[in-house]
Design goal:
single chain, 777 residues, 16-stranded antiparallel barrel, four-stranded mixed beta sheet, 18% helix, 41% strand, extended, disordered N terminus
Length: 777
């Protein structure tokens, strides 16, 4: 009986040897004579089922076998990667295949890793082929060691040491232990730029994200070298020169060296600036379909000025956006520069290919498992069967984001297969909890702990209607409120809402003033859309007030002049303009709102109040935002009373006003009791710089840091010998600065602020730490 024995370590080596045998014409030992296989027997299997082997065999029972098929059998089984040894034998008319299985991986243990999480490492190893239950392959483990080393090098850890141990176990299994000694991160010591003549080296270094360690490197990680970061910095340097006319700028070489102790990195960049080029001419070519008079104003380049790649790119994008708004969804705008080396000038040609004008076939909604389709479709400004408009698609997305029902809104406009003039608009939303169980917690030296809660369903049963039930059980107030609002009472977008509430307020507990009120309200309101971003409102309410004076002199005086129960009929009007890109963590745009209300003649108390609020958000970079907010309010009386009822006064101080002071504690105080009473004029504002969290992953979109400057106060414009101060004085404005943290946690929004008053006065109630939280469901 003849036998063919083959044993080679490594699948690549096995394949190479078998190929060499075939190419060189070396004959494998033969069976002696050709025979017909009556049965196939596989020996040596431990974990692998015989059926698996049969599936890979190029023959089956009944086939004729000779020396010409032996090599194919061995090659087929080796290529599976399951076996270390394969032998083919003959026992009469039975074909015997003997194999030795490779060991299986019983356990993978990773230790010492800190920069790369174990879960991420395990998932990456499984993708490559190193996973518990799989066949062990030493070459795969070697590749993994090399890749891990490369990953740590990219993180600046050049002293990393990776050691792998393979321990045999019973039943032909092995345990793989990967031990990682990360070592210290190498820091960039110096970046040198060679070849610059037109600009100082220090100015060029400012274009780099990488650089030597500084005070905030723990946050920016600018001193940690990575190949990707350096490539980005070199592109920033290139853009710096191209935006200043240096069209021939080139990076000749880049050298990165590391110190002997592998702790310091030196980067040397050699550049060639070339000469600056000016714009000699600006041309328009192709088939723009839009009059040139509308296109040329979009071009930012000017003849005689230095060429700028940024201005050229932005000009092309503006032209493309214009064509997109006109329905040319697939417009293509290319910039073709014609360089004159002798005159150092460049003629820029914008070649425009508008393509066919397209219209929208369908608008498809996806991801709205709770919200009804009609709620989304009524916000769409891009309609089906209408000409496509990139501007209307953008406005539609912004309107959906401002609803507040979704964490994310994306829109795609794929072409309709088989049609050159049709697109679909695919809207994908990721819903967030529409219900909110909110709670607020605060602490002050005078009030102690304050608790309040409310239940709100902003998207009731997916209809887009808002239903709210609020209650407050703090020591200062007790509130019961039921609210309802239908944003689309009519198909034109006119809204209608109702409000019922009853509030008991003990101002002694709230602000330290000794009086209390019980107020019941029943009202209805309407909203009228003016534009996509503007809205007007009109409201009517009946308000009943039961006033208890307590020991307050001002309250006693008011009771003596006006009584203690009041029935008022109030008409309110409002206007708002919302251009924010999103309602949560906006990065650009603004929110402007104006409100006015008047207790009409026939009411027991005749007064009016007007206020204006403004919020502006300016993106400084793709990650940092500057916010500016302001509020001004004024109230007065008419008719039979001489001044605004003091329990309708404005208040300042606290988390929603001037942080660093106890809520509602700023402004005039009663001389006898030193209790704050508010004022009929309010001025407040804030400047805040927002930054993303220094951590990535799930916190990138849910955590925001802020540094703020708050200012404001309230004043009484009436003369009174019962108050500590009267009349408006800019010197009374209080200022505070501090840090804030807002986290949209799984259990609700959490906001924390640390504020430090800058001009605290005698008698002020300050409060450095303030926070609040909410629960979503």
């Amino acid at each position: 009986m003849l036998r063919v024995i083959t044993q080679i370590i490594g699948s690549n080596a096995r394949q190479a040897l078998v190929l060499c045998v075939l190419l060189l014409g070396v004959q494998l030992p033969a069976f002696g004579e050709v025979f017909q296989v009556s049965d196939i027997r596989v020996e040596g299997l431990q974990r692998i089922a015989p059926g698996t082997v049969f599936n890979y065999l190029p023959i089956q029972v009944g086939d004729t076998v000779g020396e010409d098929v032996t090599g194919g059998i061995i090659r087929s089984l080796y290529q599976t990667g399951f076996f270390d040894d394969v032998r083919v034998e003959r026992d009469g008319s039975i074909l015997v295949i003997w194999v030795r299985e490779r060991p299986a991986i019983a356990e993978i243990k990773i230790t010492g890793n800190k920069d790369i999480e174990t879960d991420a490492l395990s998932a990456a190893l499984a993708d490559i082929g190193l996973k518990e239950g799989r066949v062990f392959n030493r070459s795969v483990l070697d590749r993994i060691e090399q890749e891990l080393e490369r990953q740590y090098f990219a993180r600046g850890k050049y002293g990393v040491l990776i050691q792998s141990t393979v321990s045999p176990l019973e039943r032909n299994r092995v345990a793989v232990n990967i031990e990682i000694i990360e070592g210290l991160t190498a820091r960039i010591k110096q970046i040198n730029i060679i070849g610059n003549q037109a600009f100082e080296e220090e100015e060029l270094r400012k274009q780099f994200e990488l650089g030597p360690s500084r005070w905030n490197s723990f946050y920016t990680k600018n001193d940690q070298y990575s190949k990707q970061k350096l490539a980005g910095d070199l592109e920033s340097l290139r853009s710096f020169y191209l935006d200043r006319g240096y069209i021939k700028f080139d990076t000749k070489s880049t050298q990165v060296s590391i110190s002997a102790d592998k702790k310091e990195i030196y980067v040397t960049v050699v550049i060639e600036e070339g000469a600056p080029f000016r714009v000699s001419d600006i041309k328009l070519a192709g088939d723009p379909t839009v009059p040139a008079e509308r296109i040329f104003p979009l071009v930012q380049l000017k003849r005689g000025e230095f060429f700028s790649r940024k201005a050229t790119t932005e000009s092309a994008e503006r032209i493309s956006s214009l064509l997109g708004d006109e329905g040319y969804a697939f417009a293509n705008v290319n910039t073709v520069p014609e360089i004159n080396e002798e005159t150092k000038e460049v003629a820029v040609t914008f070649f425009v290919d508008a393509g066919k004008r397209v219209y929208v076939r369908r608008v498809n909604m996806k991801g709205n498992t709770r919200t009804r389709d009609e709620v989304l479709r009524r916000e769409m400004r891009q309609l089906e069967t209408a000409w496509f408009s990139a501007d209307l698609v953008r406005k539609s997305r912004e309107r959906l984001q401002r609803l507040g029902y979704f964490e994310d809104v994306t829109m795609e406009t794929p072409a309709v297969p088989g049609s050159a003039d049709q697109v679909d608009v695919d809207v994908s939303v990721k819903e967030k909890p529409a219900g909110n169980l909110a709670a607020g917690v605060g602490f002050s030296q005078s009030q102690g702990i304050l608790l309040n809660a409310s239940v709100t369903q902003n998207n009731f049963l997916g209809t887009g209607k808002r239903v709210s039930l609020a209650f407050n059980t703090s020591t200062a107030t007790r509130l019961y409120q039921l609210g309802y609002n239908n944003p689309y009472y009519t198909v034109d977008g006119i809204s209608r809402g109702f409000n019922l509430s009853y509030r008991e307020t003990d101002f002694d507990e709230l602000i330290g003033a000794d009086y209390s009120t019980d107020v019941g309200i029943a009202g209805v309101n309407f909203g009228l859309p003016i534009s996509d971003t503007s809205r007007a409102g009109l409201g009517f309410r009946y308000q009943y007030t039961d006033f208890t004076p307590g020991a307050s002199v001002i309250a006693q005086q008011f009771i003596n002049n006006n009584g203690n129960t009041f029935s008022d009929f109030v008409i309110s009007g409002s206007y708002s303009k919302d251009t924010r890109d999103t309602a949560i963590f906006p990065t650009r745009g603004g929110l402007r709102s104006a409100n006015a209300e008047i207790a009409v003649p026939g009411s027991d108390l005749q007064y009016y109040k007007v206020s204006l609020q403004e919020q502006r958000y300016v993106p400084l970079t793709s990650r940092f935002v500057f916010a500016l907010t302001g509020e001004v309010g004024y109230g007065d009386a008419y008719g039979d009373i001489s001044r605004l009822p003091f329990f309708e006064n404005y208040y300042a101080g606290g988390p929603r006003s001037v942080r660093g002071w106890v809520a509602n504690s700023l402004g005039p105080r009663e001389i006898r009791s030193d209790d704050p009473v508010g004022g009929n004029f309010k001025l407040a504002g804030s400047m805040e710089f927002f930054a993303p969290a220094p951590v990535g992953g799930q916190f990138e979109k849910s955590l925001r840091l802020g540094a703020f400057l708050d200012f404001g106060n309230v004043w009484s414009t009436y003369d009174s010998d019962l108050l500590t101060s009267t009349g408006f004085d800019m010197g009374d404005i209080r200022y505070s600065t501090g840090l804030s943290v807002t986290w949209l946690s799984p259990v609700g929004a959490l906001s924390v602020s640390f504020a430090f008053p800058l001009n605290e006065q005698d008698g002020d109630d300050t409060q450095v730490f303030q926070f609040g939280f909410g629960q979503t469901f």
